[in-house]
Structures
1.
Amino acid sequence: MVVFKDYNQNQLMLLPPSLEELIEPNHPVRVVNEIIDNINADTLINQYEGGGTSSYHPRMLLKVLVYSYLCNVYSSRKMEGALKENIHFMWLSAMNRPDHNTLNRFRSDRLKNVLKEIFAQVVKLLVESGHVSLKEVYTDGTKIESRANRYTFVWGNSIKTNKAKMSVQLQQLWDYTQSVAKEELENTEDVDFKKIDSQKVKQTISQIDTALKGKKIDKKVKQKLNYARKCWPENLQKYEEQEKILGKRKSFSKTDPDATFMRMKEDHMKNGQLKPGYNLQISTNNQYIVNYSLHQNPTDTTTLESHVERFKALYNQLPEAVVADAGYGSEENYTIMQNAEIQAYIKYNYFDKDQHKTKNTLNNNLYYNKAKDCYYCPMGQKMSFIRTKKRITENGFEQTLSMYQAINCNGCPLRGQCHKGKENKIMEVNHNLNQLKARATELLKSEKGLYYRKKRGVDVEPVFANIKYNKGFKRFLLKGLCKTEIETGLLALAHNFAKRCA
Ligand code: SF4
């Protein structure tokens, strides 16, 4: 005989269970609840001006958002649904049911200036409980795609090319007018069309129109003039506005002007397609995120300074050591770290190659005489200092290069291997960078350095893997640098909570 357990949906309970009883003692939702209850939410509460109808409590909304990100729920409509169906959400919100608009407004507006501080408070609590240390941090970056449409690009180089074409065509129109109506243009000053703007184009076309009035004009010139009158001022105005948005960048997206086109490693087409996105930089310790920053520049090298400054702003202190890969090993970054008294366990390009280099390669075995400031080439020829050269990096950092030249390379049997130029060999040496590299090598090869190098791969890299593959966060939901930063902050908090619960 088959026996079924009692199943009666209409059975009433004398004492219905509370939500509190239904939640497991060590469930992650309890950790989120407890930690957020322990942070100081004054700055968040101060965002509210008062007046009007009552508002949902910001601490409750913050808990709901962080827990949603922890559960891989990023859409405000899905959060609204969870608040009606999921007992963990219902317990966290104490049965409050803010709708998706309220949740979205809270995420986009109220958290704008306060999330960084909340994040810092949570990390400080983790430091106090011994889960995290702020002494050494592992830094790395990844690109996260923007919400923007993938095919709405504006390229800085196209703007430059179009403007240059316009300059040339305007000059041609002007030259034609001078050849046909020289007398009418006699009183006008010499015009330079190398730099043009909408105002200048309008003025020039009006001058040309006046000069050519009543004259018999070539059909093609007439067409070009009509087109220029109709489109050029408008196009130039558009280019000026786009150049303002571009700033120092090379591209942006029309549907998210803050996003820059970057090469994404996990491109589904596997063809290295450029997509609009942001460069996310994080610092971790013990696989917890202790610092995050979003950048519009795709190169990691140029992001380290502002990333470290942000660390200082969050904790009012700097880390003692920064461990990063060769993407950060530049003269500028080494100098910044040295000035801030941070030990930089950062490889430079060719660090690994330098460790295995054979002693008899030509260019690596030049002897340097410091007292005389000259080199001796493998043929024993003196290479004297000739001049210094300055180079400015993308971030405005000035590099000084010393140039050395051999006296006579004619007839040298090693010339084919040594250099390809027709002149005597000239060599550029960055002495400051060489010193910084030597210091980096010393640190990287020390006992601590070897430990940090090993740990880097299992500290910061798995965090990206967790965010992108476990949490499925490969594309932002919101648009604009400010809002995507909020999303990053929530994601970082959710990651830390999940790690704390693990
Ligand atoms: S080519 Fe000039 S610099 Fe090179 S080994 Fe010969 S002499 Fe020296």
2.
Amino acid sequence: MNKQDLSGLIMADPRYSEACRSCMNCGVCTAICPASGYYDYDPRVIVNLVRESDEETLTDMLSSDLIWYCGQCMSCKPRCPRGNIPGVLIQILRAVSINTGLFVHSALGRQQLAIKRSIGHNILETGYCVHPTRVDPETHPEQGPVWAWMSNNADQVYGRFDKGYDKAGPGLLRKISPEALGDLDRIFEVTGCKKLWNTIETESEKHI
Ligand code: SF4
Ligand code: SF4
């Protein structure tokens, strides 16, 4: 990757013009940001670093945990007096980090593979981010013996919570129709999510 590419890729994203206009360094985004209370994370600094377009700094940032600390709460969106959206800028930085393979250099970046294979696949295969039948007791021993028992008796247990469980129609954890799952699949395709997922798989494989 040459020195011009990262800044160019960030600014070429169609979201950029809305996410990053001009910054007067007021720090309101940082003051409201919940992630800044937990991590060494400062959206004001990130906006500035992106605007400075220093390729070495951008390479370091996209290779680090920093861009994965944001919780995407979008509290920063209505607060910025210049109309920036630091949370959307983070979305762009994450996409560029994945597309350039830089994400594999950080621990939180590498977790994208597990997130893709768990939550991502859950959404496309069940329609839910998390579904109890997908939380396998063997891979989640921290859930304890009660969870293992519930998993082995799922049909009896979940049907007691709601009669609509795993059935067509309304109800908690109802079965999502094949048509709706097909729509979800198409959304993930046309929005570029599946392409991003493939890149996560191939770049992670190279790193191993
Ligand atoms: S979207 Fe991210 S940067 Fe914005 S306030 Fe929420 S955690 Fe902070
Ligand atoms: S709130 Fe807006 S103008 Fe203020 S530091 Fe954050 S991005 Fe810059």
3.
Amino acid sequence: MSKEGEKELLIRVENFGFKYPGTRDWVLQDINLDVHRGDFVSILGESGCGKSTLCRALVGLIPHSLKYCELKGKIHVCDMLTEETPITTISKKVGMVFQDPEAQFMSLKVEDEIVFGLENRGLPEEEITRILNEVSETVGIGGILEKSPFEISGGEKQRVVIGSVLALKPEIIILDEPTSELDPIGRKEILASIGKINQELGITIIYVTHETEEAAYLSNKVALMDQGRFIRQGHPLEVFPDQELFKNIGIRLPQVTELYLELQKRGLQLNDIPYLTLEEAEEDLADIIDSKLREVNSNEQLY
Ligand SMILES: Nc1ncnc2c1ncn2[C@@H]1O[C@H](COP(=O)(O)OP(=O)(O)OP(=O)(O)O)[C@@H](O)[C@H]1O
Ligand SMILES: [Mg+2]
């Protein structure tokens, strides 16, 4: 697809609208989205707003796996028009990770989950072993390759699914709320793996979540969805300061961003850039607290 500036355009969604068969309302309307190579785009929105439907459309499950649905507009993915391209062709370029990892397991051993797709593609044995080692390292599953996917933790399960998608070397990976059923440690591990995949391997990521904290860490773009429409897109630093917008669609900002905006309202002189992560807040606030303490100490010495 055409290059815009330095970065190649991989996905272009143009005025896309979608209606499920037999329903009255359009579930998606006027969706426009550009995704460039190497982007990490988070899609944020309340339950039922249409995030999963959009993911299905991006991989071609919509319209190919549904009869009698209605569409408007177009979706281009890696130079393919989804409407006109078989899912099997699209899936060579785009991998998908769903919320429930177990639904994606096909084997009784973790290792087989990773190599299954590679064997299907007829790759030579040495190549399969090389990819298996590489992927295990990236998603941190080297120690569980002999286990059953059904006896490992939720976070490990999800990393196995991500590994099996990664093994097929897609250009884009779409993750639809992959952490929603995990504890905080599992969430952190998944985010670390996805971060590596994006930053070290340069794979483009589309990440669906309710959690602004998760979106804040890695995204260079967030797209806010409300009732089937994108109501705002931009870098988290541009979008997150709009507290009203988030309140209106029932999504909580990261607590550190709320703290920043609250302190700013109270007139505290803060760094111009809002905090998106705890680390940023700690650094800036430590300086402010130090200077306040110095002020208090010097005032005390005057008396
Ligand atoms: N197969 C279907 N047929 C008819 N309506 C559907 C179908 N699947 C989803 N919907 C409806 O489409 C709307 C959007 O659903 P979707 O699953 O895309 O939302 P979501 O943003 O992913 O929600 P969640 O955060 O809960 O996963 C909802 O109103 C849902 O009820
Ligand atoms: Mg969903």
